UniProtKB/TrEMBL annotation:
<keyword id="KW-0175">Coiled coil</keyword>
<dbReference type="InterPro" id="IPR009045">
    <property type="entry name" value="Zn_M74/Hedgehog-like"/>
</dbReference>
<feature type="region of interest" description="Disordered">
    <location>
        <begin position="269"/>
        <end position="322"/>
    </location>
</feature>
<feature type="compositionally biased region" description="Low complexity">
    <location>
        <begin position="274"/>
        <end position="291"/>
    </location>
</feature>
<feature type="compositionally biased region" description="Pro residues">
    <location>
        <begin position="295"/>
        <end position="318"/>
    </location>
</feature>
<feature type="coiled-coil region">
    <location>
        <begin position="208"/>
        <end position="235"/>
    </location>
</feature>
<dbReference type="GO" id="GO:0006508">
    <property type="term" value="P:proteolysis"/>
</dbReference>
<protein>
    <submittedName>
        <fullName>Unannotated protein</fullName>
    </submittedName>
</protein>
<dbReference type="Pfam" id="PF02557">
    <property type="entry name" value="VanY"/>
</dbReference>
<feature type="domain" description="D-alanyl-D-alanine carboxypeptidase-like core">
    <location>
        <begin position="330"/>
        <end position="444"/>
    </location>
</feature>
<dbReference type="InterPro" id="IPR003709">
    <property type="entry name" value="VanY-like_core_dom"/>
</dbReference>
<dbReference type="GO" id="GO:0008233">
    <property type="term" value="F:peptidase activity"/>
</dbReference>
<feature type="coiled-coil region">
    <location>
        <begin position="57"/>
        <end position="91"/>
    </location>
</feature>
Amino acid sequence: MRARSVLWVSAVVSVPVLLAGALPSSASAMASFPASAHAAQTAHKGGPGSGKSSNQVDVLTATREEVTQKIQQLDAQYAEQQAAVADAEVAVGLANEAVGRARARVTLAENEVEIARQTVRSYAVEAYITPPAEDALRVLSVGQSDDASYANEVIKIMADDRHKVVDILVGKRKIAADESATADAAAAAAATQVATQQAQLGELEGIRSEQESLANELDDRLDAALAEAAALAEIDRQMAAELAAQETALRKAAATPSPRVQDVAVPAGAAPEGTVPSNGTSPTGPPSTGAGPSGPAPTSPAPTSPPRTVPPSPPPSPGVSVTSVGGITVNVAIADQIRGLLNAATAAGFNLRGGGYRSSAAQVATRRNNCGPSYYDIYQKPASQCSPPTAIPGRSMHEQGRAIDFTSGGALITSRSNPAFVWLSQNASRFGMYNLPSEPWHWSTNGN
């Protein structure tokens, strides 16, 4: 009987030991989650420039329709990606809620396992101190035991109770293991959602960077267009006004404010712990009128850092030598080739005239009036920041005498279907003159 009790005690004591390895620690499983999330994030995360690449457009030479299409395309991509980021934020929040619920269930199950383990341990100690045989003898000796059948029932109840608690321990262990596996799966799902959100944030940042690059390019285009409008005003004021208005509107369309990636709100607790959830003396000159109405000179100080990465053009050189060829004032360096071009055009039946050289002094005075009096205001501030927008002096080929706005028969060439434009497109390059695609009338030595 004593040997039998020792075996029973050994079995009871061994149950907790054997079951100890059956349940992976939820703490260790959860500890691996941040690492896995970070790995997934590293594998999937996008970065600046990783946005959906749209067709590249040379903004300086593209038509207005092409640039508008580019702006609309980027705006649509940005809105689409913002929606994707918002959806990802919701998914991350839901995934983390699932992780939290799973952790709570694991904790509850482990508490129940510990209670059952303590009960089994107490029974094991009791069985060692008081073997089952001695319990049976005590039961048989009590006064209430009127017969043997009653004693047998009591002994059976005691044995069943001890076996039942072992079964409870085994069952609770299995429940805890299942809950731990559920928590691991929820953690993996949350890691995937975090990685997805990071990738979408990278896409968003890429699109935003492309928008900013486009805006900077349009600043240069606006400068060139406004300088062209100022030169064009001498021969066609209506076209000059239309050009300035259209290019200004194009720049404003690209400057529609939209939140930076870091401004996109991420709900508190949306990403699990350990993950990353997802800026002198001013020159003088005679007063002059500009391409638009004058406004008061700004009094705010110049910014401490340049507004664009493109280096500003230096002040125009005052030593430009010009001469008149066929009624067009041009740089003496290109006088012979322009004379040859005009003679060839006359022979082909076209009476080409137009506007060439334009002094930069008037542009300096206009910039001072519309942009401010400092060196930065006149020579560096983007045209779009002036009121009204005004080109930086020195940005026009007209100021070098190396550009001509052609008229044919006294009218400005405003269409690429104009016969004079067709002739120029076939012959001007022989004389070193090239067209700016967005402006049919404008021809220069470098196409700008």
